[in-house]
Amino acid sequence: MYSLIVVPPATAPEDSGRRDRLRLAPGERLSFGRAPHGNGLCIAHDGVSRRAGEITAQGAYWLLSNLSREQTYVVENPEGAGEHIKVGPGRLDAPVPFEFSRIVLPACGDLLPLEVWAPCHEHVRLDSGDDGAATAPAFSLDRSKRYFAVLAALCEPRLRGAPHAPLPTVEQVAERLRPVWPAASRTTVRWNIDYLAVKLRLKPGPENADPGPRLNGKKESLVSLALRFDLVREDDLVVLAAPLRQEVR
Predict the structure, then answer these.
(1) The pTM is what?
(2) Which InterPro entries match (predicted)?
(3) Phi, psi of 31, rounded to the nearest 5 degrees
């Protein structure tokens, strides 16, 4: 049973349709670069170091060594709406926690993606028979309410695979929500953004609030918090296609 699958980058247009997948068993290593040692992965690009790096399979996760002298490598989680880690020059055996990853190699103006699939992670089975009081939720969100649909609409571009996409404007959010919320408007969307900022404790309540930040700052803070802590996931975007309850404006 293989632990890791590595898909090489396409260094020329004709390579895009024939990238062979390399499989690593637990404990195996794969070197990569312009002239890697042994049976390593050759990346034919003048901007890639001769010995650029090394991937090591380790059961349910993997390690990345950056053997270059100057380049920092970025390991992205394509399913994490911008989640990434950086591995600096000379860093050995940096653990990568993502099941699906993309190593981005900067190469003379090009960004070469080296894709890595790790095995599905194992998770502890929660025992529902624990005694005692339940732990209070860190963030209390009702996915059937309009404020959650507003939050989902704000997060949607980045959850759809564009982690650096600009956030939608208030008008764009209102237009996006009108099929499921016909009365959506700039005013109601703004109200829900302010409500979320208070609910998620990004600002104090209205009775003691100082003049708040600009709306764009609040939107960015809300989306950043929601994506960092998985308050909105890609499968939550279904709320944008379902009728919304009316308890919140």
Answers:
(1) 0.65
(2) SMAD_FHA_dom_sf (IPR008984)
(3) -85, 150
Closest CA to 233 of 174, 167, 170, 151: 151
55, amino acid identity? I
* Sheet order of strands, 110-117 included: 22-24, 4-7, 110-117, 100-107, 73-76, 84-87
Kindly provide the residue ranges of all beta strands, DSSP E only, lying in the chain, ordered along the sequence.
4-7, 22-24, 29-33, 41-42, 53-58, 61-66, 73-76, 84-87, 94-96, 100-107, 110-117
The number of C-alpha atoms within 13 Å of 32 and in the hemisphere containing its C-beta is: 27
Q: At what angle do helices 186-199 and 146-159 cross, to 10 degrees?
A: 90
Alpha carbons 19 and 185: distance in angstroms, whole number: 48
Are the CB atoms for 96 and 64 separated by under 8 Å? yes
* b/e burial code for range 76-112 (CB count within 10 A of at least 16 → b): bbbebbbbebebeeebeebebebeebbbbbbbeeeeb
Paired strand residues for 29: 56
What are the CA-CA distances from residue 114 to residues 71, 119, 120, 136 (Å)?
A: 15, 17, 19, 41
User: Would you say the C-alpha torsion 18, 40, 51, 67 has a positive or negative sign?
Assistant: positive
3-class secondary structure, 31 = strand
Exposed / middle / buried, residue 5 (Cβ in 10 Å: 0-12, 13-18, 19+): middle
Q: Which two tokens stand for residue 219?
A: 């939107």
Render pLDDT for 175-209 as a digit per residue (tens, 0 to 9): 999 999 999 999 999 999 999 999 998 865 454 44
Q: How far apart, in Å, are the Cα atoms of 218 and each of 29, 60, 226, 235, 245? A: 45, 37, 12, 24, 24
- Taken as a whole, the chain contains a residue count of 249
